[in-house]
Amino acid sequence: MQLCRVRRFPCYAISVLLILIIISCAAQMGVGGSEENSGIVPNAPDSLQVKSQSPCMVEITWLDRSDNEKSFIIERVTGNNTNWESVGSIATGKPCRWFDKSVDTQISYRYRVYAQNKAGISSYAISDTVTAINDPSLDSIASILVGTWEYRAATSCDTNEAPGYWQANMVIEGVQSANCQITFSGYLLYPNQPCQKRPFSNALVLANDSIYFVASSTLENPDCYSSHRGIITNIGNVYEMGGRYNWTDPLQCPWKRNWFARKQQ
Asked: How far apart are CA 106 and CA 178, in angstroms?
């Protein structure tokens, strides 16, 4: 006697029917709580914390209370305003932490965070008020920049070789510190070179975990165009900065040439 026969349907037919039913239910209900198919709005995050980080940056952290969100959205408002604006997002699986680097000093902010998926958005987690504090070290950084730096830059795109170097003086002047950044003007002075004096434009320093130097020369002569970026460090009684630069051929070797500068304290 075969127990799997009902009205002469073979066992394999019943097995196939059961598999189709399971697949259909999984498609409607969601397999393993996937946010793509769950049809359930995620829970709201909580324990939203905000802290003014030096320099001129606000750190936002929260706890994830859902397992089916697609992303978290961070919104911000200033003072007593009620017009919230979206300022950032974090995809699921990433740390529940975000840094707002677009704040102005001495202005108060509030933040709120919500989770979202295809089914909709959660309710909000709302922070207390936080005020961005200016970094007092920016003034000292500004004083470090002013002056003449011994400068050299590789003449070859291939950093694996031992290239020759252009040597010059890098003169930095007109330094100003405001709103968490430093702007300055200056020029590279190449002795006995066709582009002897190459002024800087749109130059700035952004302070973060490190101090970054970013500068571009003027475009008055395209043959003398260059862009620099790098990190400033303090070693003993000598300040050093260096990184990569482009020289008239950004498509040929983008950010593949080394540069270096140093100045005594």
From this structure: 12
